[in-house]
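hiii, so i know i said id send this last week but things got crazy w the move. better late than never?? heres the sequnce for the chain we talked about at the cafe, plus the structure i predicted for it. fair warning i was half asleep when i ran it
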Amino acid sequence: MTGSGRVQLSVSTWQQPMPPAASAERAAVLDRIAGRILDLGDRRVRVAIDGNTAAGKTSLSHELAQRVADAGRVAMRASLDDFKRPWSDAHLYDRVSGEGY
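okay and structure toks below
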């Protein structure tokens, strides 16, 4: 699935770069997952991606959202990272505690 659908990104201080082009194997997996999302119909669908820190959740979500948008659906990609305190304020808080994070 390739195209030029536009993915709407949430306003965030945590914007990460788009991942590099996927390998053929990864692209096939992404196409299968996106196809399952699109098969759910035209209704609004929320997809949650969970995993360990630095496991690739943001890259996966970017790639899936782009495939959904390329298929002509509206895609909005948000992140729980949007709810973290900005890194610029890290010195003000204990980033290990829930409140500081």
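btw The beta strands are 7-9, 75-77. thought thatd interest u
miss u guys!!
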